[in-house]
Specification:
Oligomer: single chain
Strand order of the largest sheet: 19-18-15-16-17-14-20
Structural class: alpha+beta
Helix content: 25-40%
Number of helices: 13
Distance between the termini: 20 Å
Number of strands: 23
Strand content: 15-25%
Radius of gyration: 24 Å
Shape: elongated
Protein backbone atom coordinates (compact mmCIF):
# COMPACT_ATOMS: atom_id res chain seq x y z
CA UNK A 1 0.00 0.00 0.00
CA UNK A 2 1.38 3.37 -1.04
CA UNK A 3 0.49 6.29 1.25
CA UNK A 4 0.47 9.91 0.05
CA UNK A 5 -1.24 13.13 1.14
CA UNK A 6 -3.15 13.74 -2.08
CA UNK A 7 -3.85 11.87 -5.31
CA UNK A 8 -4.65 14.00 -8.35
CA UNK A 9 -6.36 12.19 -11.21
CA UNK A 10 -5.45 13.98 -14.43
CA UNK A 11 -2.32 15.84 -15.54
CA UNK A 12 -3.93 18.62 -17.53
CA UNK A 13 -3.86 22.32 -16.73
CA UNK A 14 -5.97 22.15 -13.55
CA UNK A 15 -4.33 18.98 -12.27
CA UNK A 16 -0.77 20.23 -12.74
CA UNK A 17 -1.55 23.59 -11.14
CA UNK A 18 -3.10 21.82 -8.17
CA UNK A 19 -0.12 19.47 -7.93
CA UNK A 20 2.61 22.09 -7.98
CA UNK A 21 0.76 24.34 -5.53
CA UNK A 22 0.07 21.52 -3.07
CA UNK A 23 3.64 20.29 -3.47
CA UNK A 24 4.94 23.73 -2.54
CA UNK A 25 3.01 23.36 0.71
CA UNK A 26 5.03 20.28 1.49
CA UNK A 27 2.27 17.84 0.60
CA UNK A 28 3.18 14.43 -0.79
CA UNK A 29 1.46 14.58 -4.18
CA UNK A 30 0.84 11.73 -6.60
CA UNK A 31 -0.51 12.62 -10.06
CA UNK A 32 -2.02 9.83 -12.16
CA UNK A 33 -2.53 10.44 -15.88
CA UNK A 34 -4.30 7.92 -18.10
CA UNK A 35 -2.74 9.04 -21.41
CA UNK A 36 0.89 8.66 -22.39
CA UNK A 37 1.80 12.34 -21.92
CA UNK A 38 0.83 15.11 -19.50
CA UNK A 39 -0.79 18.32 -20.73
CA UNK A 40 -1.82 17.21 -24.21
CA UNK A 41 -4.54 19.85 -24.45
CA UNK A 42 -2.06 22.52 -23.37
CA UNK A 43 0.26 21.51 -26.21
CA UNK A 44 -2.38 21.79 -28.95
CA UNK A 45 -4.11 24.90 -27.66
CA UNK A 46 -3.94 28.27 -29.35
CA UNK A 47 -2.71 26.80 -32.59
CA UNK A 48 0.33 25.45 -30.76
CA UNK A 49 1.09 28.71 -28.95
CA UNK A 50 -1.20 28.29 -25.93
CA UNK A 51 -3.57 31.16 -25.13
CA UNK A 52 -2.70 30.63 -21.47
CA UNK A 53 -4.88 33.35 -19.90
CA UNK A 54 -6.82 36.52 -20.55
CA UNK A 55 -5.92 39.80 -18.84
CA UNK A 56 -9.58 40.69 -18.44
CA UNK A 57 -10.84 37.43 -16.94
CA UNK A 58 -13.70 38.01 -14.51
CA UNK A 59 -16.79 36.07 -13.41
CA UNK A 60 -18.89 37.58 -16.21
CA UNK A 61 -16.79 35.58 -18.70
CA UNK A 62 -18.01 32.28 -17.23
CA UNK A 63 -21.32 30.44 -17.27
CA UNK A 64 -22.86 27.14 -16.26
CA UNK A 65 -25.77 25.03 -17.43
CA UNK A 66 -27.30 25.36 -13.93
CA UNK A 67 -26.92 29.17 -14.02
CA UNK A 68 -24.72 29.47 -10.94
CA UNK A 69 -22.92 32.74 -11.72
CA UNK A 70 -21.37 33.25 -8.28
CA UNK A 71 -19.57 29.91 -7.96
CA UNK A 72 -16.40 30.93 -9.80
CA UNK A 73 -15.93 34.29 -8.03
CA UNK A 74 -13.91 33.10 -5.05
CA UNK A 75 -11.34 31.04 -6.95
CA UNK A 76 -10.89 33.66 -9.68
CA UNK A 77 -10.39 36.41 -7.10
CA UNK A 78 -7.69 34.45 -5.27
CA UNK A 79 -5.68 33.44 -8.34
CA UNK A 80 -5.76 36.11 -11.02
CA UNK A 81 -4.35 36.25 -14.55
CA UNK A 82 -1.48 38.31 -13.16
CA UNK A 83 -0.55 35.52 -10.76
CA UNK A 84 -0.08 33.17 -13.69
CA UNK A 85 1.68 35.86 -15.74
CA UNK A 86 4.14 36.23 -12.85
CA UNK A 87 4.85 32.50 -13.03
CA UNK A 88 5.36 32.74 -16.79
CA UNK A 89 7.75 35.67 -16.33
CA UNK A 90 9.64 33.86 -13.57
CA UNK A 91 10.43 31.09 -16.04
CA UNK A 92 11.46 33.53 -18.74
CA UNK A 93 8.75 32.46 -21.17
CA UNK A 94 8.23 35.21 -23.78
CA UNK A 95 4.61 36.07 -24.50
CA UNK A 96 2.44 38.69 -26.16
CA UNK A 97 -1.12 39.98 -26.22
CA UNK A 98 -2.73 38.94 -29.49
CA UNK A 99 -5.98 40.90 -29.02
CA UNK A 100 -8.74 41.47 -26.49
CA UNK A 101 -6.49 40.57 -23.55
CA UNK A 102 -5.56 37.17 -24.97
CA UNK A 103 -2.02 36.21 -23.92
CA UNK A 104 -0.08 33.75 -26.09
CA UNK A 105 3.41 32.28 -25.99
CA UNK A 106 5.82 33.86 -28.46
CA UNK A 107 7.23 30.42 -29.18
CA UNK A 108 5.39 27.15 -28.50
CA UNK A 109 2.82 25.77 -26.06
CA UNK A 110 5.44 23.42 -24.67
CA UNK A 111 6.91 26.42 -22.84
CA UNK A 112 3.81 26.54 -20.62
CA UNK A 113 3.75 22.79 -20.09
CA UNK A 114 7.48 22.89 -19.39
CA UNK A 115 7.16 25.46 -16.62
CA UNK A 116 4.33 23.52 -14.98
CA UNK A 117 6.33 20.28 -15.05
CA UNK A 118 9.43 22.07 -13.76
CA UNK A 119 7.43 23.52 -10.85
CA UNK A 120 6.09 20.03 -10.13
CA UNK A 121 9.65 18.66 -10.15
CA UNK A 122 10.83 21.36 -7.75
CA UNK A 123 7.90 20.54 -5.45
CA UNK A 124 8.76 16.80 -5.52
CA UNK A 125 5.45 15.90 -7.18
CA UNK A 126 5.31 12.27 -8.34
CA UNK A 127 3.78 12.03 -11.82
CA UNK A 128 2.85 8.80 -13.60
CA UNK A 129 1.51 8.66 -17.17
CA UNK A 130 -0.10 5.70 -18.97
CA UNK A 131 -1.60 4.86 -15.58
CA UNK A 132 -5.24 4.10 -14.84
CA UNK A 133 -7.42 4.12 -11.75
CA UNK A 134 -9.68 1.09 -11.60
CA UNK A 135 -11.53 1.74 -8.36
CA UNK A 136 -11.96 4.36 -5.66
CA UNK A 137 -13.27 3.48 -2.22
CA UNK A 138 -14.08 5.77 0.69
CA UNK A 139 -12.50 4.73 4.00
CA UNK A 140 -12.55 6.20 7.49
CA UNK A 141 -9.26 8.04 7.01
CA UNK A 142 -9.67 9.00 3.36
CA UNK A 143 -9.66 7.05 0.11
CA UNK A 144 -8.18 3.89 -1.27
CA UNK A 145 -7.50 3.77 -5.01
CA UNK A 146 -6.74 0.64 -6.99
CA UNK A 147 -4.36 1.73 -9.76
CA UNK A 148 -1.83 0.35 -12.22
CA UNK A 149 0.74 1.28 -9.57
CA UNK A 150 -1.01 -0.92 -7.04
CA UNK A 151 -3.18 0.26 -4.14
CA UNK A 152 -2.79 3.87 -3.04
CA UNK A 153 -4.20 5.50 0.08
CA UNK A 154 -4.69 9.25 0.61
CA UNK A 155 -6.87 11.53 2.75
CA UNK A 156 -7.54 13.74 -0.33
CA UNK A 157 -8.38 12.94 -3.96
CA UNK A 158 -8.62 15.64 -6.63
CA UNK A 159 -10.55 14.87 -9.82
CA UNK A 160 -8.95 16.85 -12.66
CA UNK A 161 -9.97 14.61 -15.53
CA UNK A 162 -11.35 17.30 -17.83
CA UNK A 163 -14.48 16.93 -19.94
CA UNK A 164 -15.30 15.11 -23.18
CA UNK A 165 -13.83 17.56 -25.68
CA UNK A 166 -11.26 16.33 -28.21
CA UNK A 167 -11.37 12.62 -27.36
CA UNK A 168 -8.26 11.96 -29.49
CA UNK A 169 -6.29 13.61 -26.67
CA UNK A 170 -7.53 10.98 -24.22
CA UNK A 171 -10.61 12.62 -22.70
CA UNK A 172 -13.22 10.27 -21.23
CA UNK A 173 -16.18 10.57 -18.89
CA UNK A 174 -14.26 9.09 -15.96
CA UNK A 175 -14.53 12.21 -13.81
CA UNK A 176 -18.31 12.17 -14.17
CA UNK A 177 -18.37 8.50 -13.14
CA UNK A 178 -16.45 9.34 -9.97
CA UNK A 179 -18.85 12.18 -9.20
CA UNK A 180 -21.89 9.95 -9.62
CA UNK A 181 -20.30 7.21 -7.54
CA UNK A 182 -20.18 9.59 -4.60
CA UNK A 183 -23.71 10.90 -5.06
CA UNK A 184 -23.14 13.98 -7.16
CA UNK A 185 -25.49 15.24 -9.81
CA UNK A 186 -23.87 15.50 -13.24
CA UNK A 187 -25.60 17.93 -15.57
CA UNK A 188 -26.04 16.91 -19.22
CA UNK A 189 -22.94 17.63 -21.27
CA UNK A 190 -22.54 18.95 -24.80
CA UNK A 191 -19.84 20.47 -26.97
CA UNK A 192 -19.01 24.16 -26.54
CA UNK A 193 -16.78 26.59 -28.45
CA UNK A 194 -17.31 24.48 -31.55
CA UNK A 195 -17.92 25.10 -35.29
CA UNK A 196 -21.37 24.80 -36.88
CA UNK A 197 -22.31 22.33 -39.60
CA UNK A 198 -24.50 23.68 -42.42
CA UNK A 199 -26.42 21.22 -44.60
CA UNK A 200 -29.15 23.27 -46.27
CA UNK A 201 -28.87 25.45 -49.38
CA UNK A 202 -26.24 27.60 -47.64
CA UNK A 203 -23.77 24.69 -47.66
CA UNK A 204 -22.75 25.46 -51.25
CA UNK A 205 -22.03 29.09 -50.32
CA UNK A 206 -19.87 27.94 -47.38
CA UNK A 207 -17.93 25.57 -49.61
CA UNK A 208 -17.34 28.26 -52.22
CA UNK A 209 -16.07 30.67 -49.56
CA UNK A 210 -13.99 28.16 -47.58
CA UNK A 211 -11.10 30.00 -45.95
CA UNK A 212 -12.77 33.42 -46.19
CA UNK A 213 -13.02 35.34 -42.92
CA UNK A 214 -15.20 38.37 -42.24
CA UNK A 215 -15.80 40.60 -39.22
CA UNK A 216 -19.34 40.24 -37.92
CA UNK A 217 -21.67 40.40 -34.95
CA UNK A 218 -23.27 37.02 -34.29
CA UNK A 219 -26.40 36.69 -32.13
CA UNK A 220 -28.39 33.84 -30.64
CA UNK A 221 -31.13 34.66 -28.18
CA UNK A 222 -29.87 37.31 -25.75
CA UNK A 223 -26.20 36.61 -26.44
CA UNK A 224 -24.05 38.31 -29.06
CA UNK A 225 -20.35 38.41 -29.95
CA UNK A 226 -18.37 40.62 -32.29
CA UNK A 227 -15.48 38.76 -33.87
CA UNK A 228 -14.60 37.08 -37.15
CA UNK A 229 -16.70 34.43 -38.91
CA UNK A 230 -14.83 31.86 -40.98
CA UNK A 231 -16.42 29.90 -43.82
CA UNK A 232 -15.44 26.22 -43.98
CA UNK A 233 -16.22 23.28 -46.23
CA UNK A 234 -18.53 21.97 -43.49
CA UNK A 235 -20.19 25.22 -42.45
CA UNK A 236 -19.19 28.14 -40.24
CA UNK A 237 -16.39 28.62 -37.75
CA UNK A 238 -14.18 31.44 -36.48
CA UNK A 239 -14.13 33.12 -33.05
CA UNK A 240 -17.64 34.62 -33.27
CA UNK A 241 -19.19 31.28 -34.20
CA UNK A 242 -17.27 29.37 -31.52
CA UNK A 243 -18.41 31.88 -28.90
CA UNK A 244 -22.09 31.76 -29.84
CA UNK A 245 -22.08 27.95 -30.13
CA UNK A 246 -21.95 27.68 -26.35
CA UNK A 247 -25.38 29.33 -26.17
CA UNK A 248 -26.95 27.61 -29.19
CA UNK A 249 -29.30 24.62 -29.08
CA UNK A 250 -30.48 22.46 -31.94
CA UNK A 251 -33.17 24.29 -33.91
CA UNK A 252 -32.10 27.77 -32.82
CA UNK A 253 -31.58 30.43 -35.47
CA UNK A 254 -28.32 32.37 -35.46
CA UNK A 255 -28.33 35.93 -36.77
CA UNK A 256 -25.20 37.33 -38.40
CA UNK A 257 -24.59 41.03 -39.06
CA UNK A 258 -22.06 41.16 -41.89
CA UNK A 259 -21.78 44.97 -41.69
CA UNK A 260 -21.22 45.56 -37.96
CA UNK A 261 -19.61 48.98 -38.43
CA UNK A 262 -22.35 50.42 -40.62
CA UNK A 263 -26.04 51.02 -40.91
CA UNK A 264 -26.50 48.73 -43.90
CA UNK A 265 -29.32 50.69 -45.51
CA UNK A 266 -27.68 54.09 -45.07
CA UNK A 267 -24.45 52.73 -46.54
CA UNK A 268 -26.19 51.20 -49.58
CA UNK A 269 -28.15 54.40 -50.23
CA UNK A 270 -24.97 56.44 -49.99
CA UNK A 271 -23.13 54.10 -52.39
CA UNK A 272 -26.08 54.19 -54.81
CA UNK A 273 -25.84 57.96 -54.89
CA UNK A 274 -22.04 57.98 -55.19
CA UNK A 275 -21.68 55.08 -57.65
CA UNK A 276 -24.98 54.73 -59.55
CA UNK A 277 -23.34 52.85 -62.43
CA UNK A 278 -21.32 50.52 -60.21
CA UNK A 279 -22.58 46.97 -59.96
CA UNK A 280 -23.70 45.67 -56.57
CA UNK A 281 -20.90 43.13 -56.48
CA UNK A 282 -18.35 45.91 -57.03
CA UNK A 283 -19.82 47.99 -54.23
CA UNK A 284 -19.88 45.00 -51.86
CA UNK A 285 -16.22 44.39 -52.70
CA UNK A 286 -15.47 47.63 -50.86
CA UNK A 287 -16.12 45.78 -47.59
CA UNK A 288 -15.79 42.08 -48.49
CA UNK A 289 -13.30 40.12 -50.55
CA UNK A 290 -14.04 40.15 -54.27
CA UNK A 291 -14.99 36.48 -54.16
CA UNK A 292 -17.36 36.93 -51.23
CA UNK A 293 -18.90 40.06 -52.75
CA UNK A 294 -19.54 38.21 -56.00
CA UNK A 295 -21.01 35.18 -54.25
CA UNK A 296 -23.37 37.26 -52.11
CA UNK A 297 -24.47 39.47 -54.97
CA UNK A 298 -25.05 36.65 -57.43
CA UNK A 299 -26.66 34.17 -55.04
CA UNK A 300 -28.77 36.52 -52.96
CA UNK A 301 -29.61 39.58 -55.00
CA UNK A 302 -28.47 39.42 -58.59
CA UNK A 303 -25.75 41.89 -59.54
CA UNK A 304 -27.03 44.93 -61.39
CA UNK A 305 -25.90 48.55 -61.48
CA UNK A 306 -26.79 50.27 -58.21
CA UNK A 307 -29.11 52.76 -59.94
CA UNK A 308 -31.35 49.87 -61.02
CA UNK A 309 -32.09 48.75 -57.46
CA UNK A 310 -35.35 50.18 -56.10
CA UNK A 311 -35.66 51.52 -52.54
CA UNK A 312 -37.50 48.34 -51.59
CA UNK A 313 -34.72 46.20 -53.04
CA UNK A 314 -32.08 48.19 -51.16
CA UNK A 315 -34.01 47.59 -47.93
CA UNK A 316 -34.11 43.87 -48.74
CA UNK A 317 -30.37 43.77 -49.43
CA UNK A 318 -29.61 45.73 -46.26
CA UNK A 319 -31.81 43.40 -44.21
CA UNK A 320 -30.06 40.31 -45.57
CA UNK A 321 -26.58 41.72 -44.91
CA UNK A 322 -27.36 42.96 -41.40
CA UNK A 323 -29.69 40.15 -40.33
CA UNK A 324 -28.49 37.04 -42.13
CA UNK A 325 -30.38 34.18 -40.44
CA UNK A 326 -28.76 30.76 -40.33
CA UNK A 327 -30.17 27.59 -38.74
CA UNK A 328 -27.23 25.20 -38.27
CA UNK A 329 -27.84 21.48 -38.69
CA UNK A 330 -25.60 20.86 -35.71
CA UNK A 331 -22.06 21.31 -34.46
CA UNK A 332 -18.88 19.36 -35.11
CA UNK A 333 -19.30 17.92 -31.61
CA UNK A 334 -16.65 16.91 -29.12
CA UNK A 335 -14.23 16.08 -31.93
CA UNK A 336 -13.21 19.73 -32.29
CA UNK A 337 -14.89 21.37 -29.27
CA UNK A 338 -12.60 23.47 -27.12
CA UNK A 339 -14.67 22.94 -23.99
CA UNK A 340 -17.36 20.69 -22.54
CA UNK A 341 -20.52 22.38 -21.28
CA UNK A 342 -22.29 20.86 -18.30
CA UNK A 343 -20.63 18.50 -15.84
CA UNK A 344 -20.49 18.16 -12.07
CA UNK A 345 -23.16 20.35 -10.47
CA UNK A 346 -21.45 23.18 -8.58
CA UNK A 347 -24.32 23.35 -6.07
CA UNK A 348 -22.66 20.40 -4.30
CA UNK A 349 -19.11 21.81 -4.42
CA UNK A 350 -17.50 24.39 -2.11
CA UNK A 351 -16.71 27.48 -4.21
CA UNK A 352 -13.77 28.31 -1.95
CA UNK A 353 -12.05 24.93 -1.81
CA UNK A 354 -13.59 22.87 -4.66
CA UNK A 355 -14.34 20.17 -2.08
CA UNK A 356 -17.37 17.92 -2.40
CA UNK A 357 -20.16 18.65 0.05
CA UNK A 358 -21.12 14.98 -0.16
CA UNK A 359 -17.75 13.27 0.22
CA UNK A 360 -15.21 15.10 2.42
CA UNK A 361 -11.70 14.91 1.00
CA UNK A 362 -12.92 14.63 -2.60
CA UNK A 363 -12.29 17.64 -4.86
CA UNK A 364 -13.24 18.58 -8.42
CA UNK A 365 -11.29 21.14 -10.48
CA UNK A 366 -11.22 22.44 -14.03
CA UNK A 367 -13.41 21.39 -16.92
CA UNK A 368 -15.05 18.44 -15.13
CA UNK A 369 -17.15 21.01 -13.26
CA UNK A 370 -20.22 22.73 -14.71
CA UNK A 371 -18.22 25.88 -15.43
CA UNK A 372 -17.18 27.03 -18.89
CA UNK A 373 -15.62 30.24 -20.11
CA UNK A 374 -15.64 32.33 -23.23
CA UNK A 375 -13.05 31.83 -25.96
CA UNK A 376 -9.74 33.59 -25.43
CA UNK A 377 -7.80 32.12 -22.49
CA UNK A 378 -10.66 32.16 -19.98
CA UNK A 379 -10.88 28.38 -19.64
CA UNK A 380 -7.19 28.09 -18.87
CA UNK A 381 -7.59 30.78 -16.21
CA UNK A 382 -10.38 28.72 -14.64
CA UNK A 383 -8.09 25.69 -14.65
CA UNK A 384 -5.33 27.63 -12.88
CA UNK A 385 -7.70 29.26 -10.39
CA UNK A 386 -9.72 26.16 -9.46
CA UNK A 387 -6.60 23.99 -9.20
CA UNK A 388 -4.95 26.58 -6.99
CA UNK A 389 -8.02 26.84 -4.77
CA UNK A 390 -8.14 23.10 -4.06
CA UNK A 391 -4.39 22.98 -3.48
CA UNK A 392 -4.66 25.35 -0.53
CA UNK A 393 -6.51 22.78 1.56
CA UNK A 394 -5.73 19.27 0.26
Amino acid sequence: MRDVDVVIIGAGAAGLMCALTAGRRGRRVLVIERSNKPGKKILMSGGGRCNFTNMYAEPANYFSQAENPHFCKSALARYTPWDFVALVAEHGVPYHEKKLGQLFCDNRSKDILGLLLEECRRAAVELHVSTSVQRIERQEDGYRLDTDLGPVRAPSVVVATGGLSIPTLGSTGFGYEIAEQFGHRVLPTRAGLVPFIITDQLKELCVELTGTSVAAVVRCGEHSFRENVLFTHRGLSGPAILQISSFWHLGDAVEIDLLPDRDALDWLQERQAARPDGELRTVLAEVFTKKMAAQLADRWFGSRPMKQHTPAELREIAGRLAHWEVVPAGTEGYRTAEVTLGGVDTAEISPRTMESRRAPGLYFVGEVLDIAGHLGGFNFQWAWASGHAAAQVV
